[in-house]
Amino acid sequence: MMRTQLARSRRDPVRALLGDGVEIRPARADDEERIRRFLAGLSPRTQTLRFFTGVHRPSASLVRSLLAMDERRDVLLAVHGEAVVGHAMSFKGGQADVEIALVVADEWQGRGVGSRLARRLLRRASVAGARTLGMDVLGDNRMVLSMVRRAWPEATMKASAGAVEVTATVDP
């Protein structure tokens, strides 16, 4: 297990505007149409890397599930203007304290949006008591596996049926 030290913050602002004009904020009920457009705009490869299948026409139930927040689920969006450019969610349960998943619009990949979403999501989960994180990554998702190796060099990675199960320990 790896131990990751997250930067401590005096506060976790609800809204944070990043230098590239991208705002990271919690999802809201009025984000349904933005999420639908975001999902539909993802390339088939990006859809598959995130959902392990294509999402040609996002269903209303998928959109609602990606926005659902409660005591077990947290959802953050990266927004540029009115457009969603990234989505990150965590949920309590599974083999780790918190499981995370995220996806970034094709044209925003490689710019650090995914890393910032992950850090913010994990900071919020840590404040809520999470000490271990888990995620499933397709084996050919080199960009995310590389990010995991940089962020959590001692994370355990177990290959299983074409996916990699990632587990790491998160310090408060």
TrEMBL record:
Residues 22-172 form the N-acetyltransferase domain. One of its GO terms (molecular function) is acyltransferase activity, transferring groups other than amino-acyl groups. PROSITE patterns: GNAT (PS51186). Gene3D superfamilies: 3.40.630.30. Pfam families: Acetyltransf_1. This is GCN5-related N-acetyltransferase. It comes from Streptosporangium roseum (strain ATCC 12428 / DSM 43021 / JCM 3005 / KCTC 9067 / NCIMB 10171 / NRRL 2505 / NI 9100). The lineage of its organism: Bacteria, Bacillati, Actinomycetota, Actinomycetes, Streptosporangiales.
